[in-house]
Amino acid sequence: MRILRTLAVICIAGWLAISSFFSFAVAPLVFKTIDRAVAGQVVSVVLPRYYDWGLVLCGIALIVCALRATIGGEGRRQPLATAALCGAMFGLLVWASTAVLPRAEATRQARDDGAFARAHRSAVQLNGLTMAAGVAVLLLETLSRPPRRDR
Question: Which structural domain range is residue 81 located in?
Fold first, then answer.
């Protein structure tokens, strides 16, 4: 069971690293250093892959946490809570990638600044919620470590 727990933590931590790096380093730097229209094109090319990685990593974590809750001997409450958070992350990423991203891209191409601003705000909020759920997963996993076995 420890290996499943470790895999879930690695997946969520990996997604948080990718998400944080893109959100707080890459995107602001791209918009700061190159023309805004070109920066928008660059980010619009990167975002589908960004969401793909999030879906893969959160999907793996969700499956692993569901397995832990189903077959685990360590109790079910904590693995179920972690699975629920991973499920929320996965759902938010699905919504962002299938509903918000296409809407944002369509409004960007149509040059509808007001609609794009609303879509962008939705994407940022979904990203923030996903990151908050990821932090909650890591805190839950860290604070509820099982007791170590004596060797």
Answer: 2-143
* Residue 128 domain flag: yes
Predicted TM-score (pTM) of this structure: 0.89
Q: What angle do CA 94, 128, 68 make, to 5 degrees?
A: 60
Count structural domains, the chain: 1
3-state secondary structure of 55: helix
The count of residues in the chain is 151
Q: Is residue 30 part of a domain?
A: yes
Q: What is the pLDDT along the chain (151 residues), one digit of tens a residue?
A: 789 999 999 999 999 999 999 999 999 999 999 998 899 999 999 999 999 999 999 999 999 999 998 886 666 788 899 999 999 999 999 999 999 999 999 999 899 999 999 999 999 999 999 999 999 999 999 887 655 555 4
